[in-house]
Specification:
- It is a single chain.
- By secondary structure, the protein is an all-alpha fold.
- Helices cover 73% and strands 0% of the residues.
- It is built from four helices and no strands.
- α2 packs antiparallel against α3.
- It is elongated.
- The relative contact order is 0.16.
């Protein structure tokens, strides 16, 4: 739900700002589609790899996968949902020829970097401890 509100607000912000003439045409549309396809590929394939539980409930509720997912798209980037979503924002900013949208993405990247700073060690710890418990019981 929060993602829908975030996306709606992002689009409202872009619609209320001036367009960049250089991107208002086939260049912006082409770049936009390219980034949206790449970003959506990362987001959708990571959802597929993690499943509903791993995506929305996962580590924070003590519902763990058997082991940490390392196949595609996690072999491309450790955080494909964050970076795929970022690529989608870039795509929509290009599609809308929005310099304000492109500038806003720097804030999105900063927020995701802060989240990853705290989340990544937590996830690594969970699967490290799970592996150690598995070795002790074997």
């Amino acid at each position: 739900m929060m993602g829908c509100v975030r996306d709606w607000r992002f689009n409202e912000m872009m619609a209320s700002q001036p367009k960049l003439d250089m991107l208002d045409g086939s260049l912006g549309a082409t770049l936009g589609v390219l980034f949206i396809v790449m970003g959506s590929t990362l987001v959708l394939t990571s959802f597929w790899a993690l499943g509903f539980t791993g995506t929305f409930l996962g580590d924070y509720f003590g519902i763990y996968l058997e082991e940490r997912v390392t196949g595609f798209p996690f072999n491309v980037t450790d955080n494909p949902m964050y970076w795929g979503t970022t690529m989608n924002f870039v795509g929509f900013a290009f599609w809308n020829a929005s310099p304000a949208g492109l500038m806003m993405i720097s804030l999105i990247v900063l927020i995701y970097k802060i989240i990853i700073y705290f989340e990544e060690p937590f996830t690594a710890m969970i699967y490290r401890e799970k592996a150690e418990r598995g070795k002790k019981s074997a």
